[in-house]
Amino acid sequence: MLRYFAGVFLIEIEVEGDGFIEDFMFPDWATLRFNHVPLVGGATRDGQALGTATFSVSGPRTQEAYLRTGTIRQWGVLLHPLGWALLVGAPAHKYANRLADGMTDPAFAKFRPLAEILFGPEPDRQGELDRLTDFFDGLEQLRDPSARSIAEVYEALYDPEIETVPELVERSGVSRRTLERLCQRAFGFSPKTLLRRERFLRSLTHFTVDPTLRWMGAMDAAYHDQAQFVRDFREFMGMTPSEYGQLSKPVVEPVIRERTRYARQVALELKEGASWHGIKPDL
């Protein structure tokens, strides 16, 4: 499943009575969410409601999403661009910064059976994970002649040394025009926007993992100055760094910390001599 997913997660939240928690989700790749108790509310920046669907989909995002929820159990799969291309196949830019009801949108019809079988009468983490894994292992993937190029671009985006579109073109081995089309179709945004988003997310991750850094210490080295960082923060999160720093983050902080732990684990395996292809299988 590594060729499809940037992550698989289980969110379990319990609040008393009619209570709720709030958070702002950061920009991310497309996500399929399967809700056992669909009490999720909230909205995108343009006012599109998150809704309470049993199976909901968020397309790739360059904007925050407001989250408000009571008690919930939710399994989610984070589709990286190759996973989107091989499993969904619809143009990613058509779902960029959008939400969809997976139970009604035809692009996600193949995933509906999982929503119907994933949860039993009682919580069962291992059983649910096994059903999710078996389901995706059994899916027939689509054919995409650009699969290898998509994987190369995706990997290059995570290299902090790649700061410009020409550098991304050189690393990915495709022409500028091909890269532009490929990014819109599989990633949802232009190469320039994707590079800026990753630069911003590196900074957000540094701050979340170690708040003692403060924003100046967490700011990615690719930023020219603080003003540029603040502009990006407003664009991607709809608020200033100071405003965000004052918010409680009951969902976002655990998510970012766990992703960072996993990334460090992979990096350690590579350092100890593991093959990258053993971690990320060949196409």
Descriptive overview:
With 283 residues, the chain is an alpha+beta fold. The protein folds into 2 domains: 133 residues, Sandwich (Jelly Rolls); 133 residues, Arc Repressor Mutant, subunit A (Orthogonal Bundle). 43% of the residues lie in helices and 16% in strands. It is built from 12 helices and 8 strands. The strands form 2 sheets. The protein has a 5-stranded antiparallel beta sheet with strand order 1-7-3-5-8. Strands 2-6-4 form a 3-stranded antiparallel beta sheet, with no helix packed on it. Helix 1 packs antiparallel against helix 4 and helix 4 crosses helix 5. The radius of gyration is 19 Å and the shape is globular. The chain starts with a strand and ends with a helix. About 2% of the residues have low confidence. This is AraC family transcriptional regulator. It comes from Novosphingobium pentaromativorans US6-1. InterPro entries: AraC_XylS_family_regulators, HTH_AraC. GO terms for molecular function: DNA-binding transcription factor activity; sequence-specific DNA binding. It holds the Pfam family HTH_18.
